[in-house]
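Example 3.2
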Amino acid sequence: MDNYSRITNNPPTLSKPLGLYSQVCTVNSSNLIFLAGQVAVDEHGDLVGNNDISAQVTQIYKNIGDALDSANAKFENIVQFTTYIVGPDNIPAFLEKRNSIVNNIYPLGDFPPSTLLVVAGLADPRYLAEVTAIAALP
């Protein structure tokens, strides 16, 4: 598709985003990619960052990058993130690490829409975060 586009915006009729995300993402695409929730495990299934949300977030975004690579996509193709964090106490450290990562990925500030949910737990009690994404390709 020659007219592929991914345009993020923040309409003036909505409040300014509370973090590094956009309120809206409009996409022209012929292929959508749905990523399963990624947790902090390496290619062998071993946990990375036991009790360390920062290390877990780094591994999660590495896994997302690997998943995107397998579909011939890049972070620039992501049109939505959904994040699950175990307990509100993990939010500040999560945001600090995530913000450093996404600022590098999206240096122009064209962050995709993102939702953050606080949950009681994930599939394994050692997991402190899980991130899923939707990407669009031409």
